[in-house]
Amino acid sequence: MATFNDIQLLRINYLRGPSVWTYRPILEVWLDLGDLEDWPSDKIPGLNERLTAWLPALIEHHCGVGERGGFIQRLEGGTWMGHVLEHVVIELLNLAGMPAEFGQTREISRRGVYRMVFRCPEEDVARTALTWGHQLLMAAINDQPFDVKPAIQAIKTSINDRYLGPSTGCIVDAASERRIPHIRLNDGNLVQLGYGAAQRRIWTAESDQTSAIAEGIAQDKDFTKRLLSACGVPVPDGRVVANADEAWQVAQDIGLPVTVKPSDGNHARGVTLELSGEAEIKAAFALAEPEGSEVIVERFIEGTEHRLLVVGGKVVAACRGETVSVAGNGKSTLRDLVDVV
Hints:
Elements: E1 8-15, E2 26-32, H1 47-54, H2 70-77, H3 81-96, E3 103-107, E4 113-119, H4 123-141, H5 148-161, H6 166-177, E5 182-184, E6 190-193, E7 200-203, E8 206-207, H7 212-219, H8 221-230, E9 238-241, H9 244-254, E10 258-262, E11 272-275, H10 278-288, E12 295-299, E13 306-311, E14 314-320, H11 334-340
Antiparallel strand pairs: 1-2, 2-4, 3-4, 5-6, 6-7, 7-8, 9-12, 10-11, 10-12, 13-14
């Protein structure tokens, strides 16, 4: 059997907004098939069998036929490698947990050169899937071994590295349900919803309409408590402390048990709950101090933590926090026990 040269990837563009293809983000790839232009899928011995053995779910791809098994029909009838690569990449994304749902391949005026696109909300993930899909297809063409599992794992890792935080992810999911397109603007959680004059930007649970003054106040827990107390809202008794000895003294003054936490931290970093002993309170101060500009000691309030999402002055969602714990077994380390959970 003849050995074919690699399909050349001439140009790769990530199109974040509306394009001639779709209004969703896509990766556009210009391909040069080279000698493979004269070798459609039905002319390469064993190609279709290898592809379907490695990617059995290709049977679910309807393709232009519009029915289950449509792409397999195209393979058996003879289709070109740009089209095959499109479906291989889409299936790898499906297996990694990020369904592509859209792809097209079109020939241009230059012989053997095609424009292939597939939908993917994250550029890094799309490029990773393309790299592995390209390798898989060339292995299938040249009857070489290929292990699909590392390919899927690499794409999953790329997805996890680019995953939005829980607050941002929920908002983006809600936007997608309403067919509002989104564009991720950085490696963090800055996201644009919509296009043009109607666009809005969010960052975690904040929007471009969030008051900077309100945000600044909310970041200072002690100041926030004082303002709430002045409005008649019950708040736990507590004070800012300068050192571990003062933390223990304040804890005795306000009553045990207490909570020790940074005054302007987030994500519960440096927070220790339900403390009653001098040694543990001083240790908690040392844990909280690097996480914020000041440390607060507060009376511990028994109860369940809830987070509320307010949009347009109305509570639209709520979630209840849960405390995770592990029990020692006399063998495993704490990290091992946490990994099991």
